[in-house]
Specification:
Rossmann fold, Alpha-Beta Plaits, four-stranded antiparallel beta sheet, 11 helices, 29% strand, globular, binds adenosine-5'-triphosphate, ATP binding, AAA+_ATPase, nucleotide-binding
Length: 314
Amino acid sequence: MTSGLTKITAPPTTDTDVVAAMRGVTKTYGDVDALTDVSFDIERGRIYGLLGRNGAGKTTAMSVLTGQAIHTSGEATVFGESPFENANVLRDVCFVKESQTYPDDLCVGHVLTAAAHLLEHWDTDFADQLLDDFQLPRRRRVKKLSRGMRSALGVTIGLASRAPLTLFDEPYLGLDAVARQLFYDRLLADYAEHPRTVVLSTHLIDEVSNLLEHVIVVDRGRVVVDDSADAIRQRAVVVTGPTAAVDEFSSKGTVLHRESLGSTTRATVRTTGPDADRSRLLEAGGTVEPASLQEFVIRTTSLPHDAPSQEPQS
Ligand SMILES: Nc1ncnc2c1ncn2[C@@H]1O[C@H](COP(=O)(O)OP(=O)(O)OP(=O)(O)O)[C@@H](O)[C@H]1O
């Protein structure tokens, strides 16, 4: 079952520089459909946001791409090969999970030494710098770390891995706002110097929206948006004004959400492009503002099944 929205996708790419891909991937756990007919490409040298509500299928998708779960049908490839039990592929992949566990007796230094052995592109100096940044005590046992410190350790491993494909699955549990900002800053600075492909799943969409270059939204196991963040920023707008004028403007795009109070209506609309004619709306006293990425994701994933949606008339 879909959200009632047409799937929103970028035009097909001619770029063959795809580091990971899914084609018609389905993953079931017993009678739970975690992923249904999922297809997307992850291209080299970009930061992707994998977004969606709780239980949407984000962790499952990342687990399939990192060989930690076997999909039920379809095809998943990383660097052109199946990732499952494929050391050739996995040495270039780092997957940092929110629920990452480490052997209890290891201390922080041991974990980093193990990571250095396992990850081909590991940078020890960078790892040391990140330990200092996050004030992680090298000699402390992992089981004695606070929840936030454990997250900081995961983030440190993900960044210092410099893996050509690095996936962070909601790595922030317990990280305070200062530590999260540190993570974003270090990620951006290091990514600029050492370009690689990063996939980030998060519920803190506003915080990361400036980081993301491409967004994949999963809703109940299906991909409902696969588009560049710029395209989403340009086309997703919040329109407010007299109902007739808002509805006329909205009819040229896809209405993601609409609410009225008296004669005024507010609608979140995905237009056909930045040049959508807004003159009549403005003349009628209406306003058009860019929708935040968070608003866009919320409106894209929370429609009831039978919600009316209008197709773009491009
Ligand atoms: N090992 C499992 N056994 C049974 N069901 C599972 C298992 N792992 C995931 N699921 C189910 O698959 C669906 C997708 O779960 P998944 O963890 O991929 O979602 P998610 O988008 O990462 O959610 P969240 O944002 O809450 O972490 C959910 O319905 C979940 O209950």
